[in-house]
Design goal:
The chain is rod-shaped and about 90 Å long. Helix 5 packs across helix 6. The protein has a domain of about 90 residues: Cytochrome b5-like heme/steroid binding domain (Flavocytochrome B2, Chain A, domain 1), CATH 3.10.120.10. The chain has six helices and five strands, in the order βαβββαααβαα. The protein has about 160 residues and is of the alpha+beta class. A hairpin with a 2-residue loop joins strand 2 and strand 3. It has a five-stranded mixed β-sheet with strand order 1-5-4-3-2. Bound molecules: protoporphyrin IX containing FE (HEM). The site of protoporphyrin IX containing FE has 21 residues, from helix 2, helix 3 and helix 4.
Length: about 160
């Protein structure tokens, strides 16, 4: 009794089978973590970060960080994309990230988490309306006006 009961029972985490530490799943796919799952890893000995929707376990990197461990701990369990980019990290720093990669932020948590995603989504739908519907409506109005003038012309 009790074994495996505190694991990921959320249906959104159905892909979370396998070794939690390396992001592998039973089928060899990418592992997805919810924001809630990441949030609890906010301690000195256990620190996860989200950067650009990717999840990193940086517990072993804290002491090595050239910018100090304090700044990393402040971001522990949260989305550090903005602060990471604000510092203007080098390409070397970005490459270092790869070794701490453990998975991806769950799709459901990306939209409410990323302002950019929302802006892009509304931008996309706006361009759909502009590209398809606006010209179609304009053509319909033109047709009606044109027919009206032709009939007017014929009857006079
Ligand atoms: C796991 C993620 C991170 C890695 C691998 C990383 C790596 C590095 C590296 C290699 C440097 C040396 C300068 C460079 O090459 O750009 C650096 C500097 C620094 N980092 Fe990070 N960093 C990470 C996350 C963060 C975060 C989230 C913050 C802010 C909250 C931060 C703040 C700083 C600061 C303040 C410096 C010092 C910059 C300076 O003195 O010029 N880092 N980091």
């Amino acid at each position: 009794m009790g074994e495996e009961t505190k694991g990921n029972t959320d249906s959104r985490s159905a892909n979370n089978i396998g070794n939690e530490k390396n992001g592998d799943t039973a089928d060899g796919g990418v592992k997805f973590y919810t924001l809630e799952e990441v949030r609890v890893h906010n301690m000195n000995s256990d620190t996860w970060l989200i950067i650009h929707n990717k999840v990193y376990d940086i517990s072993n990197f804290l002491e090595e960080h050239p910018g100090g461990e304090e700044v990393l701990l402040e971001q522990g369990g949260a989305d550090a994309t903005e602060s990471f980019e604000d510092v203007g990290h080098s390409t070397d720093a970005r490459e270092m990230l790869q070794q701490y990669y453990i998975g991806e932020l769950h799709m459901d948590d990306r939209k409410k988490n990323t302002k950019e995603a929302q802006v892009t989504d509304s931008g996309k739908s706006r361009s759909f309306w502009a590209l398809c519907l606006v010209p179609a409506i304009a053509a319909a109005i033109f047709g009606v006006v044109y027919r009206f003038f032709i009939l007017e012309h014929k009857s006079s």
